[in-house]
Amino acid sequence: MNPLFFSERTGSPRNPWKQPPRPFRPRTGIYCLALTFLFVTTAAYALPWTVQSQPTRLLNGAPVLFQVKAPAKLDSLTGTWLGHPLTFTYSPSTKTWFALAGVGIETKPGKYTLELDAESAAQKNLKFTRTFIVARATYPKIKVNLAVEKKFTEPTPDQLKQIDEAKKVKDDYLNRVTLDREWRGNFAAPVDAPTSDVFGSQRIFNGVAQRPHFGLDYRVPTGTPVAAMNDGTILLARFLYFEGNCVAIDHGQGFLTLYFHLSELHVKEGDPVKRGQEIGLSGGTGRATGPHLHVAARWQGTYLDPARLLSLTLPK
């Protein structure tokens, strides 16, 4: 037998072209890639919701900006806060969803839940809740004794009819909620002047106690130009019994700013306005003790502190 094909040690045929066995080498590149994909995929689904507020400390009577980062790409995001609906807007620059809301002055200190409801790009419904603590704000306990015309504290039957008509107008117009956001960026002061009265102070007219002061008063003479605090649409521009010549601007999603006691109106209902645009001149019409500008901020039927609204840094 040919020795090339026969093993002397084992007596069995051998293959001279057979290569020695290769050592086992795991395919590390493929395994690492698979593990990385698994980790990234798992992490993507495990990303948490991030919900923040500005200010971080919520107070009764104050506005609040909610900012949300979702665990997945969303088509829409809505929510509920203190029984009020919220519609969030997406900011591509920060990759966050935001909504401007508020806490009513009557809200008691405690824990309150923000409920979020989202529709993902994958047509999946996502829900999330976050609890916030509302603390009690400190508002001045100054009792301001003021004298006004008797028709404002002891109205006649005919004047009561005028008051009732004005109330119906306010109940109708000031509780409207439009879906689209119109405000852009920070709210700006309507005049460049010092304030003479603040939000939440107690007022007494002709010895009769009134509800707390739900606005911010600026000490300005008659004829001072008054500017819109942000972009919006003129919701109301007319004379009302207590407010005198007044303007209400709808900034969208139930957020309004109001301007009372004007001597002149320079806009009409339905007009679009931009932040800083003149809407009228200050005065002393309606229930006013003298010339000044009263400004109020209102969110879905509840009054908020305008000074705190002016302090917020808001997205465009």
Give a brief outline of the structure.
The protein has helices at 28-46, 157-173, 306-310; strands spanning 50-54, 58-59, 63-69, 74-81, 84-87, 89-91, 96-102, 110-120, 125-135, 143-146, 195-197, 202-205, 208-209, 216-218, 225-227, 232-240, 244-250, 255-262, 264-265, 272-273, 278-281, 293-299, 302-304. By secondary structure, the chain is mainly beta. Strands 11, 14, 16, 17, 18, 20, 22 and 23 form an eight-stranded antiparallel beta sheet that branches. Strands 2-9-8-4-5 form a five-stranded mixed beta sheet, with no helix packed on it. A four-stranded antiparallel beta sheet has the order 1-3-7-6.
Succession of helices and strands: HEEEEEEEEEEHEEEEEEEEEEEEEH
Secondary-structure arrangement, i.e. CATH architecture of the largest domain: Distorted Sandwich
Structural class: mainly beta
Can you tell me the CATH topology of the largest domain?
A: Glucose Permease (Domain IIA)
Strand-residue proportion: 35-45%
Q: What's the number of extended β-strand segments?
A: 23
- The mean pLDDT is 86
User: Which homologous superfamily in CATH is the superfamily of the largest domain?
Assistant: Glucose Permease (Domain IIA)
User: Termini, distance in Å?
Assistant: 94 Å
Q: Measured on Cα atoms, how large is the radius of gyration?
A: 33 Å
Count of spatially separate domains:
2
Proportion of residues in helical segments: 10-25%
The CATH class of the largest domain is identified as Mainly Beta
Question: Number of helix segments?
Answer: 3
Quick one: overall form?
globular
Low-confidence stretches: 1-13, 28-46
Main sheet record: 8 strands, antiparallel
